[in-house]
Write a structure and sequence with these properties.
elongated, transmembrane helix, membrane, mainly alpha
Length: 110
Amino acid sequence: MSNTTPLRRAGFALTGPVIWAAHFLAVYASESLACRWGEPAAHDAIVAGATFFAIAGILLHAHRTVRNTDTSGSCEAERFIRLTALALDGLSLIGVCWAGLAALLLGACR
């Protein structure tokens, strides 16, 4: 059997960007579908909900990353992965807010 711990840690670091990508897909797919159905109000509700849950998920992941940080027993690679995860969470949070605000401020189905 192989040791999958490094892959799990690397996958853990990519949680923020995965949430960001899912949010981006939800925002722009809802734009397309809402315009096709002729329901721009549904787009606003979907975007608001997706943005709320994406922000909550990213903040929860960042909180868990900070809470699980053990500086005394961690090796250099583990600390690097945790810092990378926090940086990716920050960038993902900015991306989610940017896409969510743009979708909510600009009218759907123009």
